[in-house]
Each structure stands twice: as C-alpha cells, then as structure tokens.
Design goal:
The chain is an alpha/beta fold. The protein is built from ten helices and 13 strands. It has a six-stranded mixed sheet. Strands 9, 10, 11, 12 and 13 form a five-stranded antiparallel sheet that branches.
Length: 307
C-alpha cells in the first residue's frame, strides 16, 4: 500500500486502462502529469505537486502523443524516476516509427511499439526490456515453447524472451515486421524524422491560414510528431462535428480520422468530445497537404451555406 504509478493525461487508452487495472488489484495510487495550454507536459506543476516521489514505483509515458503530436521529454523524466528507484515504461508506438531510437539515451527500462505504425503488418509489436527486469518477471501465458522442464508436479521456464512467447508465434507477421524495419533502416530514420518535421510544419502553416481551424497541441513543428489533431468551424463560428469533417473529406479522397482517438481523458481535459486528425508519414507529400487544406476550406463552405 502507498505505491504510486505515474502516467499522463495525454496517454492513449492502452497506457491508461492497464494501469487502472493494476492499481485496482494492488491498491496502488494512479497519478498523472497534466498538460499546459500549449499541449506539453506541465513539468512545473508536476514538480510543485511532487508527482514523482519516493512512493513512485512506475512511470509510464508516451514518447509521442498520438493526438497532440507532442514529443515528451522522456529522458528528463526518466532521470527523475530512476533517482527514486522507479521503473520507466515508454509507449513508443508513435515515437519509434518517426524518430531514431536509442533506448539507452531515452532512459527506458521497458519500451513497446506496434508494427502497423511503421509500415508493417497488424497483429504484432515489440517489447524491449532490460534483461534483468525481464528475467525477474513471471510468464503471463502458459503453453509450449515457454518452458524449460515440465513434470506433473511443477514446471520451470525458459529464459527471456522465450518465457513470454507461449504457443505458435505470429510467424507471417514477424517476417513482415522484420521486412518493415529493414526497409526503414534502409531509408534512414534521420531522413524520416527530418521529413516528418518538414511536412508537419507545412501542414501547420496551411491550417493556420484558415480561420476556424483550432490545432490541438503545439502549433510549431518543434519537438512535435506528425499527428495533427484539430477542430473546425465555419467562418461565422458554427462548429462542425469531426465525423462530418471526416465524411466530406473522404468523399474527396482525403483520409482523416474523427473521434477521440482512444484518448478520451485528453479530449475531456481540452474541453471537447472529439477532434479530427490528419496523420502524415514518410510517404506524405506537400501536394497531399495542399489537398487537405483545400478540402477543409470546402467543408467550411459546405456547412457555412447551411448555417
């Protein structure tokens, strides 16, 4: 009792719900970083509140927000966490596909990311962890391939990573993920990161040219990923629902997402129920961004004529 788990308000549900379940099972207290009006972690408030302290056992943060695009200062926070003996878990699902990744510099003890965010297949991801931590964890699934010796009375388990890989692995997905990683290594993650910065800056500038667009999160492509979430209103102030934005853009061959993007607490913190999100990657061109900006102007005009 008295243990604390620290996350942030900008997390994807997948980095909120498991910690809620763990807190319910163990009696630990779940605490979180707030954000500033600019959409960055409020480090000053966290320091004043003693958010990371001697009771902190785990700090789990997204490297890059899937909604705001914010690149969080994980290494700085990891240093604070390690100073009090806490374990640092990093959600790298948005960061690893966009940024050169060196876990030693990031300060992660455990880092997870998913294949489908980096031009790989769905249904597979990666968990990297410090070997001593993995060796101290019990298996969470039982079956073939994760065992060392089995008797009718008891079993012993294989060393990591095998003890966590019970049963038949997703072979085709693993091959596909390996090919995707090799492809990105060939392109060069430094190039990918530079392109993301350039194309995001172009998109932010285009959105700034339209009245009625509110970009959520940082409005400059500094310490920022490629996801740009926004709300849209007509020029006379009529709010347009993100699902309507999504549908009209889809009719013009422009793919965005509408909803809370598996980050409902963040949207509640921002005072909205949903947003639209445009996501760029290494294949996104300035011409496609131009089409998006033209499409947003079309949506504004479409609903403005019906106001």
């Amino acid at each position: 009792m008295g243990d604390e788990i620290v996350i942030s308000v900008l997390e994807h549900h997948s980095n909120i719900v498991p910690w809620q379940l763990l807190a319910q099972r163990t009696g630990a207290v779940l605490r979180w970083f707030d954000i500033t009006e600019a959409g960055r972690l409020d480090l000053a408030k966290a320091e004043a509140d003693g958010l990371i302290n001697e009771r902190t056992r785990i700090v789990s943060l997204a490297w890059v927000s899937n909604v705001l695009g914010t690149v969080n200062p994980v290494a700085q926070i990891a240093a604070q966490a390690h100073a009090v003996g806490a374990i640092v878990v990093v959600d790298g699902s948005q960061g690893v596909p966009q940024l050169p990744t060196r876990v030693s510099q990031l300060g992660a003890d455990l880092l997870a990311f998913t294949g489908h965010k980096l031009v790989g297949p769905t249904g597979i991801g990666v968990l990297w962890g410090r070997y001593d931590l993995l060796a101290g964890l019990p298996p969470f699934l039982g079956g073939g391939e994760m065992i060392e010796v089995v008797t009718m009375e008891s079993s012993t388990y294989a060393p990591p990573p095998y003890r966590f890989e019970a049963g038949t692995p997703p072979i085709a997905q693993a091959v596909g993920l390996g090919a995707a990683i090799e492809y990105l290594e060939g392109v060069g993650m430094e190039w990918v990161a530079a392109h993301e910065t350039e194309i995001t800056a172009y998109a932010l500038a285009g959105m700034a040219s339209l009245p009625g667009v509110r970009v959520l999160g940082p409005t400059e492509a500094v310490d920022r990923g490629g996801a740009v979430s926004f709300t849209l209103s007509t020029t006379d102030g009529l709010e347009i629902h993100p699902h309507d934005v999504m549908q009209l853009l889809d009719a013009r061959g422009i793919a965005v997402r509408g909803g809370h993007h598996c980050a409902r607490p963040l949207h509640a913190r921002l005072g909205i129920t949903a947003s639209s999100r445009a996501s760029s990657y290494l294949y996104t061109t300035t011409g496609e961004i131009d089409a998006l900006i033209d499409g947003l102007a079309y949506v504004q005009d479409f609903f403005g004529r019906r106001a």
